[in-house]
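Lab channel / #folding
Pinned by the channel admin:
"Please post every new chain as: sequence first, then the structure tokens as a reply. Keep commentary short and put observations after the output so the thread stays searchable."

First post following the new format, from NK:
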Amino acid sequence: MSRTGRVRHGGELTITGKLSHRAPASPQRCDLAPPRACTQNSWMGIEGNSSPFVRNLARKSQRAMRSARLGLEDGDPDGAISRAYFAMFNIARAALLCAGVPEEGLPSDHKELIAAFRQYAVQSGQIDRDLAGALNKTEDLRLQADYAGTVIDPRFAADAVRRAETFVKTIERTFALHAAAKPTDADA
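Reply from TO:
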């Protein structure tokens, strides 16, 4: 399978071969511009705050993190893992948009998004390989929590939530998304 998405700054994200949630055996091409603060000024050339879609993804990520923590407190390890993963998933989508991937070029499923994020994050040097791998690890645990007939050990859930918190905070800081998660007057 081959998927190519054009990005704003003339680069091209190309993912070739079978996409999976595992790291590719060999590096793949990723010519995205380096990340910078995700504002419409830098992202779309318009003065003002970050795009509504990016802001919504950042807020969804924050809400999912709150839900994950509440799930742990409430004794729901399966729900906590699921919400922790979606916090990571949404902030990764926001980061790809900030990196120049157009909305219509965002990967269409979880495995493609994980592969694109890991490829970009690690190859650009912006994100540590282990931290980028946390998205994949948490997705594996989410699949178990959501679809297997067993209950996940609460200690694994607590680890997943801590991993997600580190991931989300790091991505927010790296891509200047922490401000994007706050509502603006235009969102009211």
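NK: Residues 3-187 form a domain with the Four Helix Bundle (Hemerythrin (Met), subunit A) fold (CATH 1.20.120.330).
TO: also worth noting, The CA atoms of residues 40 and 50 lie 5 Å apart.
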